[in-house]
Design brief:
5 helices; elongated; YlbD_coat; 135 residues; YlbD family protein; mainly alpha
Length: 135
Amino acid sequence: MTQKKLHPSVEKFKEFVRNNPKIIKEVRKGNATWQELYEDWYLLGEEDQRWEKIGSDGEAAEVKDEKEAKGDLMSNVMGIFKKMDPNQMQSHLQNISQAIGAIQGLVSQFQGGNAPNNPVKPPEGPKHPFSFRQD
């Protein structure tokens, strides 16, 4: 197998990424692309503050985002409950109940009416399914 020789700057960038695994996580999360990171690395250099932010603020931001998301979820749920109209909710629940009843009726029809109220009847048919005639 022959491998293409990469440009020396690309080789240096790959080495930089190997030394900073948090950069890989940024790409996998979808926060950046390899092209963007390469261009920033090429223009700004390895000593830029951006690379320090990716390493240190990433974990703290994740924990903070997770706490905010939980808080936001609770406040959203509470806000929804405050905005609800009880009469409208009753109407929706009644509609859902009717829909479930209709579905149960259809299912029981397709099952042949074998509901608990209808006892199971053996299939009716001739006692001798094959009629043989003597010659």
